[in-house]
Amino acid sequence: MTQTLPLLGYSISVRRVIDETPDARSIVLAVPPELNEKFRYRPGQFLTVRVPSERTGSVARCYSLASSPHTDDELKVTVKRVRDGYGSNWLCDNVEAGSHLHVLPPSGTFSPDELTGDFLLFAGGSGITPVMSILKSVLSQPEGHVALFYANRDSSSIIFDAQLQELVAGSRGRLIVEHWLESERGLPTPAAIADFARKHGRRDAYLCGPAPFMHAVRHTLLDLGVQRARIHLEEFVSLTGDPFTPAAPLTDTDNASTVTVRLDGDTHTLAWPATANLVDVLLDAGIDAPFSCREGDCGSCMCSLTAGTVDPGRTEALDPDDLADGYILACQARPTSPELEVEF
């Protein structure tokens, strides 16, 4: 008889649901105290949610946290309906207070290393969710200024409109928001994006929204001379695999490489079979590995290869600078040398 392994992740109850706009809802989660440490997060990260499906059993979708770990006691994800989007429509139609969602702990790399500087933020539509988390976190610090360019279809589609107005009013000039409404001005133009960027100096820029919007903003900033390393993008991906199903126990360890992994202040020495990825090796050893999609799309499992060599597998989530600096994706890489060292 085949043994069914328990699902990865946690079942978390929904405390309440907030209607943000006619097609967007925020889901506030009630994380139990015993899971507070596992659900500790950084501004800009996301949750991976398991959505039931009659056709496939379930689908996995990633939704950014709009809450801030520095200002909010509860975790909140905001979901906007996507036309023909199964996950977003199911969540908006079915989730209510008292529901339970099966989720993976927060993950993602769209997060500033420091919150004390000045920031240039660009959001399009529901791309405001991780940007809002970063924005509130920066304003919670004693210093730092934020300039937000927020593009939407029309005024009724502005998520967090009232909250943004309150934050501007209480920021003592530290927060500036420019709304761009397609219904009034058409799509954002490179000239308008460049003008906004010039007004607010050379700051680290964080971009989230539809792909054409981010493409336009990124190329405009590069044309202005903003360093590539100072432009950070968050791309929403629809997962095709099932990150909640654990891999089968590893058995091919006779000719495995040896890997030393430094993670969360601890050092682990493990056997790494040539046929396995590092995320599965860590999970098999009972170690909480940072991951989300397990498909090489999100970058959540990015780590630094400090010794040894690997077959990197898919690397679309890494930019050329990441690859040049020795970063790999733990859900994709396979070992090609007898000994390796990796640091998360």
Strand content: 25-35%
Low-confidence stretches: none
What is the topology, as strand order, of the major beta sheet? 4-3-6-1-2-5
Estimated helix fraction: 10-25%
Gap between N and C termini: 38 Å
Overall pLDDT confidence: 93
Brief rundown of the structure:
By secondary structure, this protein is α/β, with parallel strands linked by helices. It is 20% helix and 32% strand.
Please name the defining characteristics of this protein:
globular; alpha/beta; five-stranded parallel sheet; 344 residues; 8 helices; six-stranded antiparallel sheet
Summarize the topology:
Elements: E1 10-21, E2 24-30, E3 46-53, E4 57-64, E5 75-80, H1 86-94, E6 100-107, E7 119-124, H2 128-139, E8 146-152, H3 161-170, E9 175-181, H4 182-185, H5 190-199, E10 204-208, H6 211-223, E11 231-234, E12 257-263, E13 266-272, H7 278-284, E14 302-307, E15 310-311, H8 320-324, E16 327-329, E17 334-335, E18 339-343
Helix pairs in contact: 5-6
Question: Would you write up a description of this structure?
Answer:
The chain is globular. 20% of the residues lie in helices and 32% in strands. The relative contact order is 0.12. The two termini are 38 Å apart. The protein is of the alpha/beta class and 344 residues long.
